[in-house]
Design a protein that fits this description.
Number of strands: 3
Oligomer: single chain
Structural class: mainly alpha
Radius of gyration: 23 Å
Helix content: 55-70%
CATH topology of the largest domain: Neurolysin, domain 3
Order of helices and strands: HHHHHHHHHEEEHHHHHHHHHHHH
Strand order of the largest sheet: 1-3-2
Number of helices: 21
């Protein structure tokens, strides 16, 4: 039986290597690849994706899963080997339903669509991207069909990102969030606006880059096992525990955009660098889910990076570096500015109070696309209508509207809800970390993050994908995903900033 377990791990390691090679090509595609390489890169990605799919869904893997079950039944159910067989069986039973022809076609289509999206966004021309998005939507509908019958056509796509969660469960969570967040935003809108004009200046790029590098180094990012580059849309990717890469982007007139982006992606990277070494080159060497992954980026970006304690330590240095714009700006003015609540067009720049509304809008549109009640041709106007309804804004063009996100070019339908769920999880983890580390805020005031990172390593990172998201969150915090801590956090934080507290 030991020989079979070793053979099982050997096959999984080969699949991991193929996926890592594809991820490396994907990273290069978004950072350094010349534009002319799009078609051939799509073919290469299609080949690697097909080979990984064939290897993972082989009869040999299926037979080994069945053969190993008696041994697994005798193990500690939380052991690496027991969880590996359990997780792989779930993935295998799902992927074996997906034809290799579809895997190749999807990889090819999304690679080409990515470059069409970049061009369309630059030209502010949705029609240029429309046929590529129509193809991606068609492929995602076909994918969902492989898993019929289902409660909802969106369920198989959501399950890819959040194992075990259903569309109905997420909608129920969002139904709790939406009215309270809308009420808070209306209360804030009635208060005097916060001045952030000093942030909307042409901050020089290199000092922004250097400061972001300094901050995530202090967080614990290991540069011997990672690097940072620039891309059109910031992202994190990993080729193994020893090679985790992030990207950031600069905005011409938003002085904190690159820093917040670097902290956000740095949070993802800390998770990827924190898996237990015993999980190396297995499917367990990944996040428990996209929402859990997002909880790490949002925790470091918002709960740490937008906190008063963080800036008590870092603001004097940041102020000195950018004294041209911040020389006469106090810490309190700066803190209020980086936490300003104001409906905005761009999701990645949205404040904590309005961010989830951007996500709900996208999920509703995705569901409509998958159901067939909304055509891709009508998507720009549907987007604009919901922006008006949710945030009171109308995008002046598609670049600031329906084309702002990279996700649909990559066929990532079912992904967006994980962002809002990640917000909820981040606060649940934050509350528990504070309970376990009573002086956590004082540590942050001193620019020390080892206590927080150590807590996350122990309670989240080291487990990788051993546990489904709801189980991991409950193990770490004592509760499954719950919107109430997040709502409390918003009410307390912005109540203080805007004078809403009684």
């Amino acid at each position: 039986m030991v020989d079979k377990l070793n053979r099982f791990k050997e096959l999984l390691a080969e699949v991991f290597d193929l996926n890592a090679a594809a991820a490396l090509l994907g990273w290069d595609e978004q950072t350094y690849m010349p534009k002319g390489g799009a078609e051939e890169r799509g073919e290469a990605l299609a080949t690697l994706s097909r080979l990984a799919h064939i290897r993972f869904t082989s009869d040999e893997v299926g037979a080994l899963i069945d053969d190993l079950k008696p041994m697994v039944a005798q193990l500690d159910p939380d052991s690496d080997d027991a969880r590996l067989v359990r997780v792989v069986e779930r993935q295998y039973r799902k992927l074996v339903k997906v034809p290799e022809r579809w895997v190749s076609e999807f990889a090819r289509a999304t690679s080409v669509a990515h470059h069409a999206w970049i061009e369309a966004r630059g030209r502010k021309d949705f029609k240029h991207f429309q046929p590529y998005l129509e193809k991606n939507v068609e492929l995602r509908r076909e994918y969902a069909g492989f898993f019929a019958p289902y409660q909802h056509v969106y369920d198989p796509l959501l399950d890819d990102h959040e194992p075990g969660l259903t569309t109905a469960e997420v909608q129920a969570i969002f139904d709790q969030l939406r009215p309270q967040q809308v009420a808070l935003i209306r209360e804030i809108a009635a208060r005097p606006p916060v001045d952030d004009s000093f942030l909307r200046k042409p901050y020089p790029e290199q000092p922004q880059w250097d400061f972001g590098v300094e901050v995530i180094t202090r967080f614990g990012f290991d540069w011997n096992r990672g690097r940072q580059d620039k891309s059109a849309h910031p992202f994190t990717t990993s080729f193994g525990l020893g090679d985790v890469r992030i990207t950031t982007r600069f905005e011409e007139h938003l002085g904190t955009a690159a820093l917040l982006s670097t902290m956000h992606e740095g949070g993802h990277a800390l998770y990827d660098q924190g898996y237990a070494p015993s999980l190396r080159r297995t499917p367990l060497a990944s996040g428990a889910s996209y929402a859990v992954h997002e909880s790490q980026s949002r925790l470091w970006e918002n709960l740490v990076g937008r906190s008063h304690e963080f800036w008590e330590h870092f603001y004097p240095r940041f102020q000195a570096i950018f004294s041209t714009y911040l020389g006469n700006v106090s810490l309190e003015q700066f803190y209020r500015a980086i936490n300003k609540v104001e409906p905005s067009l761009i999701r990645v720049n949205a404040d904590e109070a309005t961010y989830n509304l951007h996500i709900m809008l996208r999920m509703e549109l995705e569901i409509a696309l998958m159901e067939g009640s909304l055509s891709v041709a009508d998507l720009p106007e549907a987007w604009n209508e919901r922006m008006r309804d949710y945030l009171g804004l109308t995008p002046p063009d598609v670049a600031l509207g329906v084309l702002q996100d990279v996700h649909w070019s990559g066929g990532s339908i079912g992904y967006f809800p994980t962002y809002a769920l990640g917000n909820l999880i981040s606060v649940q983890l934050w509350e528990k970390a504070q309970a376990d580390i009573p002086d956590l805020r004082d540590q942050i005031r001193q620019g020390r993050f080892d206590g927080l990172l150590g807590w996350l390593r122990e309670n989240v990172h080291r487990h990788g994908a051993k546990f489904e998201p709801q189980e991991l969150v409950e193990r770490a915090t004592g509760s499954k995903i719950d919107p109430q801590p997040y709502l409390r956090y918003l009410r307390n934080k912005f109540g203080q900033i805007y004078g809403l507290l009684a």
